[in-house]
Amino acid sequence: MENTSTDIKQLNEKIHQASAFVDLLNMELGKVIVGQKYMVERLLIGLLAQGHVLLEGVPGLAKTLSIKSLSSAINAKFSRIQFTPDLLPADVVGTMIYNQQKNEFVVRRGPIFANFILADEINRAPAKVQSALLEAMQERQITIGDSTFKLEEPFLVLATQNPIEQEGTYTLPEAQVDRFMLKVVIGYPTKEEERHIIRQNLNPEGQEKINPVVDPQDILNARKLVREVYMDEKIERYILDIVFATRNPEEYKLNKLKPLLAYGGSPRASINLAWAAKAYAFTKRRGYVIPEDVRNICFDVMRHRVGLTYEAEAENVTSENILSEILNAVEVP
């Protein structure tokens, strides 16, 4: 046991040093992004845990600015794809075009070939386009004609959904939403933050420029370290209890949730909860996961993986309400 505690201590020191860039990144992004600390933190967790992020919020909450600034601070390639009803899969992944001089077909790569992809208003495009993007997210590769291309790492898709306009939108099927590690719901800034935003935008000299403070290679190295973050068996059991309580609430004395849940989290929920908890611990410059890390990230990992029945919708019960009940009922290690 002594040996293990020594190992954890060494790992903790190693991660404390290696995660110093997180503060650098936060400081750099803080120059232009006001008040959206939660969203920036979640983007970083997605990046470090090799996941993708689905953002839900009304227009004008700095979603585009955040991912653009993050890619500038990491010195990575950024692409923005505006999803519209007439978008085709080839507009996202690329296509074969005929080269008359060479008398052959050549591949023209689409905007998906970048490190950071902003899929703006993903629910505006038809299922064909969504599935083309989701293949890239899952397989980290693209097939055009007979050729398959590996996508460059780090690769992060940030998809945004506008919750207020439902006309002309195609809801993402549950199986596709499940591909996103985190679904982050963001709200309005506070009065003080909004005053700061007004001043920043009205003052042309005050427009700060984001400088690269990290290299993509640093992110890849950090990802290897995130794998090494120590997770005790008790924490593993805690994660399993949370996920299993969404499937069989009666086993956790939560009989009242049974008629409200259509289905619970899949094994992907457990994997992502463990990954995200490790990444969260890393951003807090710790080499081990504590129960608080799991609780902190739980809503973002689980809210889109819990299916509600008509009864729940009729009673205005949200997935957040159900997850709160579960977190209160499941024993914390």
Automatic annotation (TrEMBL):
Keyword Metal-binding attributed: no
Domain ChlI/MoxR AAA lid: 259-326
Keyword presence, Nucleotide-binding: yes
Gene Ontology MF terms in the entry: ATP binding; ATP hydrolysis activity
Entry superkingdom: Bacteria
Any matching Pfam family: AAA_3
InterPro entries: ATPase_AAA-3, CbbQ/NirQ/NorQ/GpvN, ChlI/MoxR_AAA_lid, P-loop_NTPase
Keywords: ATP-binding, Nucleotide-binding
Domain ATPase AAA-3 per the UniProt entry, residue ranges: 52-182
Family indicated by similarity: Belongs to the MoxR family.
PANTHER family (UniProt xref): MAGNESIUM-CHELATASE SUBUNIT CHLD (PTHR42759:SF1), MOXR FAMILY PROTEIN (PTHR42759)
Protein name, entry field: MoxR-like ATPase
Organism: Chitinophaga costaii
